[in-house]
Amino acid sequence: MVTQETEGVIQFAYHLRPPRDRAQVRARADALEALAAPFRRAGLLGRDPARYDGLAYGNVSLREGSGYAITASQRSDQATLKAEDICWAALQRWPDGTLEAEGDRPPSSESLVHEAIYRACPGARAVVHGHHPALWQARAALALPCTASAARNGTEALAQAVTTLSRGLETGSLAMAGHRDGMLFWAPTPEALHQLLAQTLARLSDLHHDAP
Fold this sequence. Notes:
Layout: E1 14-17, H1 22-41, E2 46-47, E3 56-57, E4 59-64, E5 67-71, E6 86-90, E7 99-103, H2 111-120, E8 126-131, H3 133-137, E9 146-147, H4 156-166, E10 172-176, E11 182-187, H5 190-210
Parallel strand pairs: 1-7, 9-10
Antiparallel strand pairs: 2-3, 4-5, 4-8, 5-6, 6-7, 8-11, 10-11
């Protein structure tokens, strides 16, 4: 039986309120754009009519106060992130599990994965979830930690799997077997995350060069 992917579908309850400080939102957008740009150039963020039913893929976030700024649902394909493309989400959820968010659009469908990293890794301040077919297919050869195929994208099960694999690691990356082409990167700073991306892609290149 083939399990249908649910790319872009929000699978958690959330409450969205309008931004209270537009200047702060613009600053958040600038910071997220600086984080996203190298990942966009490397192909981990965007939109391709031939992939994932033409939906946008990938999302980025930065830890801020009692929560995190994150790209809004289906906005990671923008050439430059603007204020309306991002929102802020609280780490502390309502008793019923509802996510509290602030912005013009709903939070990313993968918000729970970002939340999982920030809870499990207190030193992590920047997280990127992107899609890279070649990295994903080489995950075993690169010895990357990997969530189980039963943990599907956007679910609490995937968030729990990410928590298990990342706990206590300030910097890291992993693949998601249950989310086609899905990769996750986190680090204490955007600069460290960009360095991790470059190192991981270099390892992939070396792997291909060494192949018979």
